[in-house]
Amino acid sequence: MKDLKTHRNALLAGLLLGMFAAPAVANTEAPDTDELLSPESRHEKIGELVTQFVQRSHYLHVAVNDELSSGVMDRYLESLDRNHMYLLESDIEYFEKFRYQLDDVVRSQPLDPVFDMFAIYRTRVRERFNYALTQLESEPDLTISEQYQFDRTESLWATTSEELDELWRRRVKNDILNLALTDKPWEETREVLLKRYTRYLKRMDQVKSDDVFETFMNAFAHTLDPHSSYLSPRNSEEYRIQMSLSYFGIGASLQTEDDYVHIVNIIPGGPAFLDGSLNPEDKIIGVAQGTDGSMMDVIGWRLDDVVDLIRGPADTVVRLQIIPAGALAGDSNKELSLTRGQVKLEEQAAKSEIVKVPRDGREWSIGVIDVPSFYRDYRALSNGDEDAASTTRDVKRLIADLEEEGIDGLIIDLRNNGGGHLTEATALSGLFIDNGPVVQLRNSNGRISRLDDPDPVARVAYNGPLGVLVNRFSASASEIFAAAIQDYARGVIIGQETFGKGTVQNLYSLDQYLQPEGDQGFGQLTLTIGKYYRVTGESTQHRGVNPDIDLPSPINSEEIGESVRDSALPWDTIQTTRFRASEPLDNTIHSLTVNHSERAKADPNFQYLLQYIEEGRESRSQEFVSLSIDERRADRETNRVRALELENERRLALSLEPIESLEDLDDEERPDVQLDQAADIVTDLAVMREIGGIPAQTAQVQP
After folding, report:
1. What is the largest CA-CA distance in the chain?
2. Would you state the pLDDT for residue 17?
3. How high does pLDDT run on average in the chain?
4. Fold classified for 247-342
5. How large a percentage of the chain has pLDDT more than 70?
6. What are the residue numbers of the active site?
7. For 434-460, how does the pLDDT look when each residue is reduced to its tens digit (9 = 90+)?
8. Which of 210-214, 351-355, 694-698 has the weakest average pLDDT?
9. How confident is the model at residue 14 (pLDDT cuts 50, 70, 90)?
10. Residue 514 has what DSSP assignment?
11. Residue 344 has what pLDDT?
């Protein structure tokens, strides 16, 4: 261990002496003048206990051995420096001696290598930001034509500090240019970045031993699969607060990645959900209090500090500056205002509307029930409360209301529904099938259990034409419901391939298994212990549910979903369970697809969506951005002009007045193309049903 500490201490000494370009391999020894982080005895106890849980309870019964250790090493390095902007190739070579030791470290040996690697990483971070500060001493020339590579995840590690200096010169210049594009003068830009880079350095000083340990344990857990994780005592409490929904905020789950705070998901019923302007994958770069408070730059902040800024008293305003998900390089940032409020269960509830579809001189009524999550108020239900919140109860009531209004067909909208209670997924399925199994579960011991319609004697709530609308963010319980509808041939699945999360997790509070050490806890472990399977025996894991009729979506399935995670558990099958499906819908789906394709060709909204997706895909494939302010302005203007052209082409085709600027476009004017297409498809189903004496499977409907 001494040689690694020598390497680390020399790097620290270099930093303290002001050596912004430390040698690739240090060979001088210096005293530890910097406060070094070190493992605590409870960390080793946690590691040992987690290893036992993994070997005994994880679905794959993973062996904690050299092979796993190698994967953990790669994952740990990725969590520290995913974009290859801090560490040198010599550091990586030095770390190689630990590649096959981390299994022993987490199982029973001291965690010194983990902390020593972090110390070297922290030194490199300090070197980089001290260098970045030197780049603010004079205003750079933003007219020079050069490029910045913002995505270096697949790039080789830099071999020298001089190479990193050049990378960081361009990074700083890009930061300057981003602010210059908002018309900030140089002095103001310099002040913002001075504070930002100084804050990065301060954050490094504030890292605690629990933070290092949590980072490593998550690298360990995520090597097993994407949904196993470890939370430190502090973050365990944060998780408890969020799950209880007993706080005032905006109702969004956040995480940090590459110095940015990302929106993971929007909590149904919260202020962000009700406002509708914040989306998963948006990046928060600034937070301001009230309607006129100054915007605070939060790039590089600790997540908990950003959360503290966003939270606040009920009915107060917080303003967020964001980079929208999928924004093109050079696009303008967006600012939005949200009024803090408490997440209320009743606001998560399913809601309904009726979409009118004109067809052959008649107006068809298609009911739409938006199900934002699979919610269930267990406490109220156990107390016999007839009005207790429940997805199934609410949907059943909404169906009855819609049928009273005389709907011709029904759409269950599960877009962006990330799941929820399994009980509700099976119960909701039971509203549309007579009885029978809904989903199968296999645990880590290979035992297979089956969950059936929980109310098999009850009549179906709706037996008319049915469509289920899904997208890439439809996950878990949503996939169970959609798969059941598809397998029973009860309805048509419309939209995009779903997320592909077909695994079951269990949460272990480690405080229940270890003796407390003063007031310090041990955190919690989330472990994947099982998998879901369809009644056909196919897994929803990795592949998700494939729609019967595809619709284009701006959500890129090559970047989002279980299939893009390299540690995702594989797709597989088990034995089919007994179930009684309706007649196959193959012919019906073929007819629906033909009709949909013909309509889409002549639908300006549909064609607009296709062009928007294609042009966005081309722009997002870029890894470089220009560092010339004139080129960036020209690119941004080109993108704006093209976006305006596309919008006015759409409006012209619809006989609408053109607009002069995208800012003139009212949000209410933006069509929900997917919902409109789904309503047309379900109308086709309704027409088929009315064709006397002709089975729906073979009926032909003209567009």
Report:
1. 91
2. 27
3. 86
4. Pdz3 Domain (2.30.42)
5. 87
6. 476, 487, 501
7. 889 999 999 999 999 999 988 887 889
8. 694-698
9. very low
10. S
11. 59
Cα Rg, the chain, nearest whole Å? 28
Residue 409: strand pairing partners: 366
CB 37 within 8 A of CB 209: yes
pLDDT in tens, 276-323: 778 888 889 899 999 889 898 888 787 778 888 888 888 889 999 998
Task: Find the mean pLDDT for residues 529-556.
Answer: 96
Give the residue ranges of DSSP H helices in 265-344: 271-275, 303-310
Q: What b/e readout covers 383-409, taking b as 16+ CB neighbours within 10 angstroms? A: eeeeebbbbbbbbbebbeebeeeebbb
Question: What are the sequence ranges of the domains in the chain?
Answer: 2-224, 247-342, 345-507+527-583, 604-690
Task: Give the residue from 540, 394, 556 showing the smallest Cα distance to 473.
Answer: 556
- Contacts of 20-27 with C-beta under 8 Å, sequence gap 24+, read 20/127, 20/130, 20/131, 20/134, 20/161, 20/165, 21/127, 21/131, 21/161, 21/162, 21/165, 22/123, 22/127, 22/161, 23/161, 24/88, 24/89, 24/90, 24/159, 24/160, 24/161, 25/90, 25/94
| Alpha helices in 602-672, H assignment, sequence order | 604-620, 629-653
Residue 289: other Cβ atoms inside 10 A = 16
pTM: predicted TM-score of the whole model, two decimal places:
0.81
One-letter amino acid for residue 534 of the chain: R
Quickly list DSSP for 389-449: -BHHHHHHHHHHHHHHTT-SEEEEE-TT---B-HHHHHHHHHTTSSSSEEEEEEETT--EE
- CA proximity to 175, closest of 205, 203, 200, 206: 200
Q: Which residues contact residue 283 at a Cβ distance below 8 angstroms, ignoring those fewer than 6 apart?
A: 260, 261, 262, 263, 322, 323, 325
Phi and psi at residue 376, in whole multiples of 5°?
Answer: -160, 125
Among 509, 671, 520, smallest CA distance to 604 is for 671
β-pair type (296-297, 283-289): antiparallel
Phi, psi of 492 (to 5 degrees): -110, 130
Residues 6+ apart with CB under 8 A from 593: 549
How many residues appear in the chain?
A: 703
Alpha-carbon gap, residue 168 to 161, rounded angstroms: 10
Q: Are the C-beta atoms of 303 and 235 separated by less than 8 Å?
A: no
How many C-beta atoms lie closer than 10 Å to residue 419's C-beta? 20
Asked if residues 376 and 390 have their Cβ atoms less than 8 Å apart, the reply is yes
**Is 622 in a helix, a strand, or coil?**
coil
The answer regarding whether domain 345-507+527-583 maps to CATH 3.90.226.10 reads: yes
Cα 662 to Cα 178, 611, 613, 669: the distances in Å are 21, 17, 17, 12
Q: What are phi and psi of 409, to 5 degrees?
A: -165, 170
pLDDT at residue 259 is higher than 50: yes
pLDDT above 90 coverage of the chain, percent: 62
**Which is nearest to 480 in space by CA: 378, 391, 592?**
391
